[in-house]
Amino acid sequence: MRTLVGVVAALAIMGSTAGAATAEPAGSTPLDTLAACPATARSDAPVLLIHGTHADVEKSLGPVRQGLLDDGRCVYGLDYDSDEPLSASVDYFTAAVHRILAVNQGNTLDLVGKSQGALIARAVSLRFADRATNPIRTVVAVSGPQQGTSIAGIRLPTLPTGSSVPQGLPFLSPAMFDMLAGSPYLTRLNSGPMVAPGVRYVMTATSYDEIVTPYTTAFIHAPGVTDILVQDGCAADHTGHMAGSTDPRTVDLVLNALDPVRHPTVRCAANDNRK
């Protein structure tokens, strides 16, 4: 019988060796195709959106992107393989930050991530922590497993009845394993400061999250971090993890975090966990 420890150890090896980190993992948007912001874009920092697992920017952050475009903001949304180890995706998006800054001859950028993308966004900001001025101005994280999700939150095919292998674990992709509480990747990432100095962080979560569990793992209690629970001040909003992508209150919280002057209002709308 394989024990849980044995399975986890095997997956740790797989997660650390599968797909050596490269600037552009297979299936990712080629970074040399990223052009400068259009001349008509408002003179503000560009925004890089990072989608969640097995999704794309439209599924994860479509209404947020539209709201930013309506404001005249310059918005980048890149495809990436969300099954790759998180280290590879963080390498890729760090390179994307360099590319976006270079083509725009700029020095600041905002990051918005949903779920896995929210964790990646924070990790990318930490890559610049040793700079005198961090180019990442704001990180807005929507339901991100910043401190790791429990295995109960990862929905995978079940094994035959009576199987001796812990349910679900053999089917984890490297990225899913990396997002588990206590994984080698998260242990390394969170062994030092959780956030970078000089960066503003806004972490949102919903108490009805069925994927990132417990939902409090999306929060970080540190200077420069604002933790927001969707239900605070709006008990009628029962949005879960997936529905949060289009939930009016969640969308408003993100837009308000990026620009409270242009988005001063955060709606409270009843939501029965539908997108």
Automatic annotation (TrEMBL):
Gene3D superfamilies with a match to the protein in the record: alpha/beta hydrolase
Keywords recorded for this protein, A-Z: Signal
Keyword Cell inner membrane: no
Signal peptide (from-to): 1-20
Statement: the UniProt record of this protein carries the keyword Signal: yes
Designated name of the protein: Lipase
